[in-house]
Amino acid sequence: MGVALDTSALVAFERADASWDALLDEYGDDVIAIPAIVLAELRVGVLLARRGRRQKSAKIEALIGRVTLVDFGREIAERWAELFAALRRRGQLIPANDIAVAATALHLGFDLVIGGEDEAHFRRVPELRLKLLRV
User: Fold this and answer.
1) CA-CA to 101 of 20 to 30 Å: which in 16, 31, 68, 95?
2) What CATH number corresponds to the domain at position 76?
3) What is the pLDDT of residue 79?
4) Quick one: pLDDT band at residue 133, thresholds 50, 70, 90?
């Protein structure tokens, strides 16, 4: 089994000033995946930061080196399109990046770890299993 991590989970973990070791230990032997779009969102955070860019960038690189980074390839793109169409038909669209995160988790058959109640829109995605990050 495995888990995919949403940006919200990683940001919440960082704000709690916890170590990546604690996060990785939380999921034991599970495969831990990070969708490519999550890496992009984290990098935007670094680029927009007023201070500590080098430290933030190094922290991201340390995490990426220890998890599975999942590219947005053809199969995930197909799943993204299916989810987008289904959510739009129901009038329940969520942010496009979050559809990519959900599509990645569903493609892998993994649970999605989210960081807070503000991420409840993920519950609109059919069959997506969510776990709330425990910090």
Assistant:
1) 16
2) 3.40.50.1010
3) 98
4) confident
Q: SS3 sequence, the chain?
A: CEEEECHHHHHHHHHCCCCHHHHHHHCCCCEEEEEHHHHHHHHHHHHHCCCCHHHHHHHHHHHHCCCEEECCCHHHHHHHHHHHHHHHHCCCCCCHHHHHHHHHHHHHCCEEEECCHHHHHHHHCCCCCEEECCC
Give residue 127's domain range: 2-132
> How far is 112 from 32, CA to CA, in rounded Å?
10
**Burial class of residue 70 (count of CB atoms within 10 Å of its CB; 0-12, 13-18, 19+):** buried
Query: Total domain count for the chain?
Result: 1
Is 116 a residue whose pLDDT tops 80?
no
Q: Is the pTM of this model over 0.85?
A: yes
Assign 25 a pLDDT band (cuts: 50, 70, 90).
confident
